[in-house]
User: Which sequence fits this backbone?
């Protein structure tokens, strides 16, 4: 598994050997789908909530006596059949969408996603990523250099993987649409698949090894 390393100007510097156990796996769509569904479910927030009859205000007194009025019997004006009453079988905050998945399955799915990026030639390796000024223009210039040299439009959709937190790069990248910066030790399947290109700093490979393999 050989991969070319470029500098920020888009010039080829050298070639490195990628670890086959991370970047050389065959894609198992069923496994990747299972991990993606789990991750999306765990990130889901319960927003919709309807009140049942116990949460509605009022209705503590029986509206009229049980017999003798000629009307139907009722115990509370907050019954679901009354206007302003509780909701039956509505969505509540007690719903749980959390799913569990084996750690090794999640790890393997991530490696498969990374392998697919290499196979489809959608991963770009940089020797380093440094900017002098915290400006969007600085980051856009680097992406445009790579676009012109490599014929890959990274400005459309790219996930930038850093070996450690770099506030300059993160802030300079904040205003660029369809781009995201992430640390190598926080990589996940959903982010890798959500972006077309993967722009990775060379040192991130060692961080991935250390974080996700024994």
Assistant:
């Amino acid at each position: 598994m050989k991969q070319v390393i470029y500098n920020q100007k888009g010039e080829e510097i050298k070639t490195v050997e990628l670890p086959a156990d991370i970047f050389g796996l065959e894609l198992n769509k069923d496994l990747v789908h299972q991990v993606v569904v789990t991750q999306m479910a765990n990130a889901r927030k319960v927003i919709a909530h309807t009140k049942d009859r116990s949460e509605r205000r009022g209705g503590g007194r029986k509206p009229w006596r049980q017999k003798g009025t000629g009307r139907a019997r009722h115990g509370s004006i907050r019954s679901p059949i009354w206007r302003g009453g509780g909701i039956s079988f509505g969505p509540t905050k007690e719903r749980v969408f959390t799913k569990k998945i084996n750690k090794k399955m999640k790890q393997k799915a991530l490696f498969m996603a990374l392998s697919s990026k290499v196979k489809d030639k959608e991963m770009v390796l940089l020797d380093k990523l440094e900017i002098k000024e915290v400006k969007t223009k600085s980051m856009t210039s680097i992406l445009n250099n790579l676009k012109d040299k490599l014929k890959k439009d990274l400005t459309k959709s790219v996930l930038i993987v850093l070996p450690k937190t770099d506030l300059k790069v993160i802030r300079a990248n904040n205003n660029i649409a369809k781009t995201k910066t992430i640390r190598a030790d926080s990589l996940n399947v959903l982010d890798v698949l959500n972006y077309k290109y993967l722009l990775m700093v060379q040192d991130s490979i060692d961080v991935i090894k250390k974080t996700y393999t024994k």
User: Anything to note?
Assistant: Residues 10 and 146 are 5 Å apart (CA to CA).
